[in-house]
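Input:
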Amino acid sequence: MEDVQSGAPQVAVSIDKVGVRHLRVPLWVRDRTNGRQQTVATVDMGVELPSAFKGTHMSRFVAALDTWNEEIDYYSIKSLLQDVKKRLEARKACVVIRFPYFIRKPAPASGITSTVAYQCCLTGELGEGKMEFLLELDVPVMTVCPCSKAISNEGAHSQRTMVHLAVRMSGFAWIEEFITIAESSGSSPVYSLLKREDEKYVTEDAFAHPCFVEDVVRNVAVQLQEHKHVTWFTIEVESMESIHNHNAFACIERTVR
Amino acid sequence: MEDVQSGAPQVAVSIDKVGVRHLRVPLWVRDRTNGRQQTVATVDMGVELPSAFKGTHMSRFVAALDTWNEEIDYYSIKSLLQDVKKRLEARKACVVIRFPYFIRKPAPASGITSTVAYQCCLTGELGEGKMEFLLELDVPVMTVCPCSKAISNEGAHSQRTMVHLAVRMSGFAWIEEFITIAESSGSSPVYSLLKREDEKYVTEDAFAHPCFVEDVVRNVAVQLQEHKHVTWFTIEVESMESIHNHNAFACIERTVR
Amino acid sequence: MEDVQSGAPQVAVSIDKVGVRHLRVPLWVRDRTNGRQQTVATVDMGVELPSAFKGTHMSRFVAALDTWNEEIDYYSIKSLLQDVKKRLEARKACVVIRFPYFIRKPAPASGITSTVAYQCCLTGELGEGKMEFLLELDVPVMTVCPCSKAISNEGAHSQRTMVHLAVRMSGFAWIEEFITIAESSGSSPVYSLLKREDEKYVTEDAFAHPCFVEDVVRNVAVQLQEHKHVTWFTIEVESMESIHNHNAFACIERTVR
Amino acid sequence: MEDVQSGAPQVAVSIDKVGVRHLRVPLWVRDRTNGRQQTVATVDMGVELPSAFKGTHMSRFVAALDTWNEEIDYYSIKSLLQDVKKRLEARKACVVIRFPYFIRKPAPASGITSTVAYQCCLTGELGEGKMEFLLELDVPVMTVCPCSKAISNEGAHSQRTMVHLAVRMSGFAWIEEFITIAESSGSSPVYSLLKREDEKYVTEDAFAHPCFVEDVVRNVAVQLQEHKHVTWFTIEVESMESIHNHNAFACIERTVR
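Output:
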């Protein structure tokens, strides 16, 4: 059968990335507490395509992912990309893996544990040299408004606020390290299971630490700047304001070293 | 050219609804304050198809919508459905129109006005007799947790809470009537524009009226039961709990008369 | 500490359902081929609340789900609901579990296998008697347009088409049975991994079986009516028409016995 | 009342962008055919915040948008940003406006016209000098697979394919120019209303011009490179493959001059 893809294109332009998107697969991911945990991932994969070829061979991405039976981490992503480069005879390959990461988290007063899910995304890009590696993470926190607290006779509006991190690193760090950084930067962490004594604790703790999205983004920035492996980051904090039907946001991007 | 649709199907089963979905068009909608307002709608349209015909004629829905140049209300939806029934020689037709409805709303202390958007959905179904008509509406409110307030030395968690109404009526009612019902049923309405004095007002008002999703759904239910035209309703209240990454919800469905 | 929830409400109205939504947890699900498979689920849980109580105890849902360590099936959902009823002293409880279900599927010509994900949703409602149980399933297929094929000198437009099933049953059936029914009702099944010989096979097979959304919904309906355990179903077929930016759809709902 | 925002932050870090997101408002947009058209927009607005201030004044964004009564174009966005900078005493301001843009489009054989919606996004960033301006546009097209066509005895799979453009310019260009570029780069444009003669035309035209996502992205790139005002672009083409439940994509980014 004719290999249409390997023919010459009508227009000789090189393509930065071409591939497949939204493959859903069950995968294992490296886990600090238990060694590894199982999750479900949505995967995008692509390669660079030189101007001489009409098309890439899309089925080879799916075959590479299908035979990849390692748990997700820096090294296994690199070996997946090496396999993709080889199968597709490409100079450059990339993969994006999105998945929920689960942690057992104790409630702050009762100590009772429950499961919390954090949305993660790992992106690897491999050309000739070192793999470019990006960790993205969504961490929900609670924020109590300092302005509302200062001007009101009673109370202050609070809301769920999402901290979105994107981090480049020079060495290995656990997902848990960044969750801790984000959760310590709002008025309070959020939990799946809170008994009454825990709800009292969270409320009082949050009201003792009111913060704007501006405060949250700065608190995260300072900690990421001090992290020994972080070389670059962006932070986006977005709060679902309880007094509005729109959101407030704040962003900081920095190259650390 | 062959009219494949008008041929006999391989399987002689009647189809409840067949048609088109997600047509986006600019439309006018009837407005209590200004007579009418312009919006953008997403429209689904369908007809019943007898077992004798292989297919419906999808282009006729688009043609009917395209020539419909009335502002959205009960009567114009009925005339659209009559046109659809005729064009498609159908015994039964339905249309679903989703659109944001805009209201100028004054802030509670300063009185300064701004635009607030409420997501609406109108569904009409026309067979032989009277048109079945359903109004759906999403109204955001603020809720302050009564438990958190009662047990904590200071504060209480609050959050944005969505009130979703679906209402069947025996006579005409304005969208604004249902917005008022929903907004009076939480701890406070939400606003687009709040000056400092307004934020103080909203915070104190909300903390003076703490309510669970259970309270909100009941407060709405009681008012819908007393509305002179409402014959049936469902209410779904969902709060984006600021102490959790999951939501709380409460639902009531009632046939009123 | 005060138990605000157990107090009397201001408005004495019973609530149909109150609970939590969008809990994400890793779970096991019963699997025809391998006994069981792991997946990630999004879970909603609720109970009926009598008019005498101000609120439900939301944390008990999370505790019940957290201690539930069985694989998802009819019987385990029933035991979860029995536990929820007991913990919350409720007359009626319900749970909705959404998850991707993974199947190894051979390509039609080469026989090479790969993983395909099907979105599932199981709903259980338990009052005094038998549990109400609903299986929902999204199965993508390919459709080739019979009209376009009949009137054109060459080709016919095709598209990805989603078959959404909701089924009530009187006895046990595998998810795989309904996937097979849906996949045999379009122009061709879809696959994750297709070698060139498979792509030729799928194209020719699909063009030999052109069908409208009307044909697909009827083909599924006939098979569900003949299934020995199905007592009620709705089918919604929606095709992402490649010649339009809107979709075509067809629905059939039937009580079988 | 205390102005908490104007106080000093605990952590003296400057913030790149802080503001509001997801405000929904009705707006007018400049239109090549009719001078202007009304639409509904979702708006994000932000400013840079120096390290000396704890917070920004979020209500001023809403006030600025509320008094802005011009139709959306390059110049009006610039004047909105000048107003935002002044109100918030900021060195830098940005705005993102997302909206559907409607065009009356004639069917290719019958000439019958209907409305097609294209999702647009305009971003303006204004610091000391010239405004940075970005136009983004989603244009759906149809693609027929060249490989499937070459290897099959009959037919070829086709699908709806989204062309996403992001363009920076040195001078004025109409949205319509970029729609034309994208629609001429696939196998066929898509339409809202097609009579039978049009469906025949579109099918035959598409099958006479089979193309991969690779071909589409290259066809668009060549035309954007030749556009007299384009200085930079990214193109992402994503096809909802009818033989898979995943998508194929191709991306090109270029600085033109």
